[in-house]
Amino acid sequence: MTRDRRATAPLPQLRDDVARFLGYYNRLPGPPQEELGPQAARQMMRAARDLTDPPIGPLRTDDSFTIAGPAAPIPARRFDPREQREPGPVVLFFHGGGFVIGDIDTHAPLAAEMARALDLPVVSVGYRLAPEHPWPAAPEDCEAAARWLAGQPGTTGLIVAGDSAGGTLATVTAMALRDRLAAVPVIAQGLLYPAADMARAHPSLRDFAQGYFLTRAMLDWFVACYAADLHDVRAAPMRGELAGMPPAVIMTAECDPIRDQGRAYAAALAKAGVAVTFREARGTIHGFATLRKAIPSGVADLSAFLLALKAMIVEAQGISPMGQ
After folding, report:
1. Would you please indicate which residues are annotated as catalytic (active-site) residues?
2. Taking residues 289-294, what's their average pLDDT?
3. How many other CB atoms sit within 10 Å of the CB of residue 321?
4. I need a surface site. Which of 69, 151, 214, 245 has the fewest CB within 10 A?
């Protein structure tokens, strides 16, 4: 990984609720997640969900099922504020967690809120995790799930979405379906603080390496577990051809070690002629969308992201109001 040698700038000021959360989190006893091992780190993330994120909330549809995958059945869960749907677009959601931790259940509150805010079905995918299943297991599962969903009756288009590592997988999936068409197109990308090129150390990686929830040590552990070829576009989509990608809504967190990767991806898409809506949540940290109980200001950040994504979907579909 290359190093950034530019002079440091003053760090941004944290919001009050973010500072309170970090003050508590950074004083927690015990070893950091990267020293626990994958299974214990996953258990910690599952246990923390009810403390840090709101409940799933009301839905009319919440179904678990499996999708045929390249190695084994892929777990999936459909969230929908409605019981019945006319044909229309479907959101395919990939959870974050560094390709190592996180699952459908840890991100269920986020997927459910996405379904309500967009008034669309959201299918959350439980792709295989590293290190038990290193790269390219995750992008292979995600592409298989996308092609399956694209071929289902009533699906007129896909919106690929994800947070953190899931944002990377959403981008990689969109690229795969651009290059080899599925039954219906990907009409939009919805990306929360995505990693776009893990081989390059941007200034944010240096500035927020420690003490801001996601750490440089944790990122290094994720990269080692994932064992990806960081020069391959399925691991670093910034290194691929971006012309012809679907329009994107990208939101980064200002105090996030991978912030600059999201900024760079948004700029590269725009340079390639792709429509982009870019927002940055000021004074907050990586993971705010799944920390809304612990960091209440994240509720407004997520709402702003989903409002922008809904507008982009409406434009892509050429219909108004959406879902009618």
Report:
1. 164, 256, 286
2. 98
3. 7
4. 151
Q: How many residues does the chain have?
A: 324
As given in the structure block, the two tokens for residue 296 are: 């209440």
**CB-CB contact of 199 with 2 (8 Å):** yes
Q: Residues 208-244: pLDDT tens digits?
A: 999 999 999 999 999 999 999 999 999 999 999 999 9
What is the model's pLDDT at position 8? 62
Q: Rounded to whole angstroms, how far apart are CA atoms 142 and 160? A: 10
Residues 197 and 192: their CA atoms lie apart, in Å, by 15
Query: Helix 108-118 to helix 298-317 angle, to the nearest 10 degrees?
Result: 50
Q: What is the pTM of this model?
A: 0.95
Contact indicator for 216, 256 with CB cutoff of 8 Å: no
Mean pLDDT of the chain: 95
Output the 3-class SS for the chain: CECCCCCCCCCCCCCHHHHHHHHHHCCCCCCCHHHCCHHHHHHHHHHHHHHHCCCCCCCCEEEEEEECCCCCCEEEEEEECCCCCCCEEEEEEECCCCCCCCCCCCCHHHHHHHHHHHCCCEEEECCCCCCCCCCCHHHHHHHHHHHHHHCCCCEEEEEEEEECHHHHHHHHHHHHHHHCCCCCCEEEEEEECCCCCCCECCHHHHHCCCCCCCCHHHHHHHHHHHCCCCCCCCCCHHHCCCCCCCCEEEEEEEECCCHHHHHHHHHHHHHCCCCEEEEEEEEEECCHHHCCCCCCCHHHHHHHHHHHHHHHHHHHHCCCCCCC
* Identity of the amino acid at 94: F
